[in-house]
Amino acid sequence: MTTSVVELGRQLIYLLILAIPIASVAWTVTHEEIFREPRDYCIAKSTTCRSIFERKLFYLFTCEYCFSHYVAAAFLVLTRYKLMFDDWRGYLIAEFALVWVANVFMGLFAKLRVEIKAEKVEIAAAETAAGRKT
Question: Which of 15, 21, 23 is nearest to 84 (CA)?
Fold first, then answer.
């Protein structure tokens, strides 16, 4: 059975909120220093394992898009969040919608980090130049 417009609005707000921790977990595991050693191990295994299954399994932990599917699935199990339908279709739509929104958030975060890093380099260069003038 489909949902009402009010309920759909509530579900869309939940979608945006749930995508934040999904993006956070996926980004942290696939990019941040705290998981560097396991990620480096998975990168090596994803290129050296003999079986394609093993290579792809290890690759999942190095790609934020791939990994976000599994994080979203875990969040669906934890929250029982459904989008648009009250049956299995709601879970399926929610899975892909959560992954999409989480990856939009991660893309925006990546862009923001690049801009912040560029600003820091620019500030450091200006401070170095100012130090030379005095």
Answer: 15
Q: How far apart are CA 20 and CA 51, in angstroms?
A: 34
Positive/negative CA dihedral, 97, 102, 105, 111: negative
Q: Number of folded domains in the chain? A: 1
For residues 37 and 118, give the distance between their C-alpha atoms in angstroms, rounded to a whole number.
Answer: 26
Distance CA(123)–CA(115), nearest Å, equals: 12
Identify the domain containing residue 16 by its residue range.
5-109
User: Is 59 exposed, middle or buried (CB count within 10 Å of its CB: 0-12, 13-18, 19+)?
Assistant: middle
Tokens of 105: 């958030």
pLDDT tens, per residue, the chain with 134 residues: 556 888 888 999 999 999 999 999 999 999 899 999 999 999 999 999 999 999 999 998 888 899 999 999 999 999 999 998 989 999 999 999 999 999 999 999 989 888 888 888 888 888 887 777 66
Whether residue 74 is contained in a domain is answered as yes
